[in-house]
Every structure is written in C-alpha cells, then in structure tokens.
Amino acid sequence: MSATTWHGRRGAMLLGPTEHRVARYLADRTSNGRVTIRTTDLIAALGLERSEAYRITARLRVLGIFGVENDRGGTNGGRHYWRTPIEHDGARLDATRHRVAWSRILAWARARREVIAARLAWIRHHPRQADLVGTRVVLPTEPAVTPDAVGSVTFAERFRRAGGGPLLAEWGLE
Length: 174
What we know:
The chain is α+β, with helices and mostly antiparallel strands. It contains seven helices and five strands. Strand 1 (4-8) and strand 2 (11-15) form a beta hairpin. Helix 1 packs across helix 3 (50-62). The model has no long low-confidence stretch (mean pLDDT 80).
C-alpha cells in the first residue's frame, strides 16, 4: 500500500490509494474553481461504494484539501466541491502582544477559578443557602454565627429573638 502526499490548509497529509484517486479526480474537476458533482456520478466514475465516497470526501474536507458543501434538499443537482488554498505563512502575530494578551486571559481564568472555589467553599458550609435559586451569593469574611452558639440555643429562643414571641403565645407554646 503506497501513500501519496497532498498539501492542504493543515499542511502536508498522506493519503491512501483510494483517497488519492478521489482527490486526483476532484482536483481535475475543480481546476477551474467550484463545481457541482452528484455523489452518484462520483461513485460511478471511481467505482466506489456510497459510504466510502461520503467517508473519503468528508476526510478530504476535514484535512483542508477540498471544500465540500452539501446540497440541502437536493435542489442544486449535487454537492459543491472546490480546492482550498494551500497553506501559507500569512500574517504572523506579534510575539510580545501575543504574550501580553495570553497572560491577560490566564489572569482572568485564575481570578474566576478563585471566585468559584470561594463560592463552593461557602456553599458547602451553608447548605440551606445553596437551595435558594436566583439569589446572589455574598461571601462573608467570617461566619456570622459559630456552630457552637447555634447548638446551645433552642429554636423557640431564636424565634422569640427574631420577633416571633407573640405568635408563640398565640399558639400556646410559651
């Protein structure tokens, strides 16, 4: 089995014999630009199976050797094929500006990660607050009530302190 080298948008690629045959056929047909080819014509001209033709043309598209546009609805007489431009160096990024921009992105990601970690830690210590949907979580610097203080006071005492004493009297729970 021999492999042939083709150049596309992603650089040099090795194609197998059947892929090379399809690429050569498409290169001949697309030498003047974009063409419309029915898949049945492609299959008949190259002696391929239907699934093989779709698999190979999809691979040629992914590798950046040919552009392929499906004929949605079948109203244009086939799929559109064109040869993609060969890879080139093009405009290069300024290395200094690229490093500055990348460091800004990393700094933002680190800050975001720290905020999320702090919120998760706060939620783990306040599980009932996590059930509130649509509320903004404000991170306290230190807990308002210590766990020891909560255990020593009964619910009725905390309810009275919050202003619920008259209700307790009304319910006969004084």
